[in-house]
Amino acid sequence: MSTRSAEEAALLVLAALAPGSQHGFGLIGDVERLSGGRVQLRVGTLYNVLDRLRALGLIGVERQEITGRRLRRYYQIATAVSAPPLAAATAIRAGTSLRVADSDRDATAAALREHFARGRITLAELDARVGVALTATTRGELLRATRDLPPHDYVDGGRWQ
Predict the structure, then answer these.
(1) Domain range summary for the chain, segments of one domain joined by +
(2) For residues 63 and 78, what is the distance between their CA atoms, to the nearest angstrom?
(3) 72 contact partners, CB below 8 Å, separation of at least 6
(4) CA-to-CA distance for 103 and 18, rounded, in angstroms?
(5) Which CATH number fits domain 3-77: 1.10.10.10, 1.40.20.10, 3.40.640.10, 1.10.530.10?
(6) For residue range 113-143, what is the model confidence (pLDDT) as tens digits?
(7) What is the pLDDT of residues 66-109, one digit of tens each?
(8) How far apart are CA 102 and CA 143, in angstroms?
């Protein structure tokens, strides 16, 4: 699957989950319906997309149940990402050689998800940047993931939170 079609599949899955939770096979039908029959996901492709969206923190498993002899998971869009704590934001703004903590990496990943939600970066960019953020050890490495984006506390229209 090409990067473009993987992004399209991910966006269609997110659109299918917008009204509420849904199980995997239900998502296949919803994606086909939303795309007017143009996109027909195979099971393997769907679960690769779901795994990637879960790793990025965009969706989660709402519940699981046994139907017949099969496990059925219901997926939902993750709840709104809360703003990073002041301490993490302060540490991220400190010198570029300053070592960062897990909370700093998590705050940067949350900010990147918000930029994706606002349409500033693509799913492929989000995936790559979150990978950089989660493996960063210094502020400079964190900044590499966000240097071309507005600060996380920037509100569209030029106002600061």
Answers:
(1) 3-77, 86-148
(2) 13
(3) 23, 24, 64, 65, 66
(4) 28
(5) 1.10.10.10
(6) 888 988 889 999 999 999 999 998 888 888 8
(7) 888 888 899 998 864 433 434 444 443 444 667 888 888 888 88
(8) 15
